[in-house]
Design brief:
- The protein has a single domain, classed as Double Stranded RNA Binding Domain (2-Layer Sandwich).
- The strands form 2 sheets. It has a 3-stranded antiparallel beta sheet with strand order 3-4-5, covered by helices on one side.
- Helix content is 39%, strand content 16%.
- It has 140 residues and is of the alpha+beta class.
- It contains 4 helices and 5 strands.
Length: 140
């Protein structure tokens, strides 16, 4: 069981890990070992995710979410498989934690009277400056 928040946790069986060869530095090990981790988590079919968290997670995931609703996280920052595995899990937990926080509802506000007055004064000032740039008609 992977604990996300006190009320949300996901099962180990919901997370699928594949080990692939990493790109980048690492010498001969890069060509021999599968140290990078591709973590897959099915957002659409997860029974433990509340519906609102699922919707926010889909929005947060962006391009990491496939058409089938599977979240794919690639971790290859570290040279060892264990550290990449831990990194991928941490990133999954962090993403779900961010999705679990409901955004504060927006309360529509109106500009204050002073703000309206300052806006109009700045518009008048700008109009005056632009008016001074106009060519004056020739005197006859």
């Amino acid at each position: 069981m992977i604990r996300i928040t006190p009320s949300i946790s996901i099962g180990e069986d919901e997370v699928e890990e594949h080990f692939i060869r990493a790109s980048g530095p690492g010498g001969q090990n890069v060509n021999k070992l599968a140290s990078a981790v591709q973590l897959r988590f099915d957002v659409h079919r997860s029974p433990r995710l509340p519906e609102d968290v699922r919707a926010r997670l889909e929005r947060l995931a962006g391009r990491r979410l496939t058409r089938e609703g599977v979240l794919v996280i690639n971790a290859q920052r570290h040279r060892t498989q264990e550290r990449n595995r831990a990194d991928a899990r941490e990133r999954l937990v962090d993403l779900i934690r961010r999705a679990a926080v409901a955004p504060a509802p927006r309360r529509p506000t109106k500009p204050t009277a002073g703000a309206r007055e300052r806006r109009l004064q700045s518009k008048k000032h700008r109009a005056t400056i632009k008016g001074l740039r106009q060519r004056k008609p020739p005197l006859e």
